[in-house]
Specification:
321 residues; alpha+beta; seven-stranded mixed sheet; four-stranded mixed sheet; 10 helices
């Protein structure tokens, strides 16, 4: 990877440096187009932007964490489709003062996230920008891609892992405090649920999406796409321990705090009504991740959330707010 036949100039010097740093985590760098290896099923694509000052701040996390986080956010979309990862392309805008070492450090995070998910860096682009901008396009394959629009009345609604950790970190930073280590890890180093998504797809998931806009927002996306009503029991929401601490410290209801937080990148799934706690335990045995039932699908539209039988209004992240 160190002897890429490119011309001279700072851009190509940086590409060579990135290729050398990534090693086997990248393939085909230096070409104008990525070439996908032949494989099974349908090709699945997704793309996400990560922008300094909008999605992260440099004083919060390192450049390597910025790269990991940007890549994992896009890879999480493949998880929600139940897809296997092929790889990704990364287009990076760097401020004028950024060095070649800075770019390499960011791309180390991108490459590490791709490799951890079973894929490679397939290519990308470099340019100057007013602030750091990272655009990731991910490529996967699936025999039966799962979308948002096939949830059915009678389905049950489940989530993987725990919620609210990333929000706990964000709240701490915004108050000028250091987040708890576990909360910081959830924000800076999210893990896309690739194996979990494939397991759920193989066991009949009718609809899935990742929880990037907060459970409060994403259940609304599921309801709208599938033209159903989603009923959520907030008492059942699995809450990250650091979110419990943060919510109680500021007098918020714990489950509502977790439900309104985004960027957990857990999976929200509508599963057939035959899927039960026995299957959920088998899921945990196979993947190492907890799966929790939090609601059900009914005929109708919109979202109904309750806590101890009392209606609660949920909201999620608005990208243009």
């Amino acid at each position: 990877m160190t002897d890429i036949p490119l011309g001279g100039g700072l851009e190509f010097d940086r590409i060579r440096a990135i290729a050398a740093a990534l090693g086997s985590a990248a393939t085909g760098l230096g070409n104008d187009c990525a070439v996908l290896p032949p494989g099974f099923g349908e090709v699945v694509l997704s793309s996400d932007l990560s922008i300094e000052g909008v999605h992260f701040r440099r004083e919060w996390i390192s450049l390597q964490e910025i790269g990991w986080r940007a890549a994992s956010a896009s890879l999480s979309d493949l998880a929600a489709a139940g897809a296997e990862v092929v790889g990704l392309t990364a287009s990076v805008g760097a401020p004028r003062e950024a060095s070649s070492e800075d770019l390499v450090e960011l791309m180390r995070g991108v490459g590490a996230a791709a490799a951890a998910a079973g894929g490679r860096v397939l290519g990308g682009d470099l340019t100057r920008a007013p602030n750091w901008v990272v655009e990731i396009t991910v490529v996967g394959r699936s025999m039966r891609p799962v979308g948002r629009s096939e949830a059915r009345p009678g389905d049950t609604v489940w989530v993987t892992g725990t919620l609210g950790g990333a929000r706990a970190a964000l709240h701490a930073w915004e108050k000028g405090e250091a987040p708890a280590p576990g909360a910081r890890e959830r924000f800076a180093h999210p893990v896309p649920r690739i194996a979990e998504g494939r397991w759920l797809a193989a066991h009949g998931a009718h609809a899935m999406l990742d929880i990037s806009d907060g459970l409060g927002g994403d259940v609304g996306h599921l309801a709208a796409a599938s033209e159903v009503r989603v009923e959520v029991d907030l008492e059942q929401i699995p809450v990250h321990p650091d979110a419990v601490t943060r919510a109680l410290a500021q007098g918020d209801a714990v489950q509502a705090f977790a439900a309104r937080g985004g960027e957990d990148y857990e999976l929200l799934a509508a599963l057939p009504k035959s899927f039960d706690e026995v299957e959920a335990r088998r899921f945990q045995q196979d993947t190492g991740t907890v799966l929790t039932r939090i609601g059900r699908i009914r005929r109708g539209s919109g979202v109904s959330a309750t806590f101890a039988g009392v209606p609660v209004t949920l909201s999620g992240h608005d990208h243009f707010a």
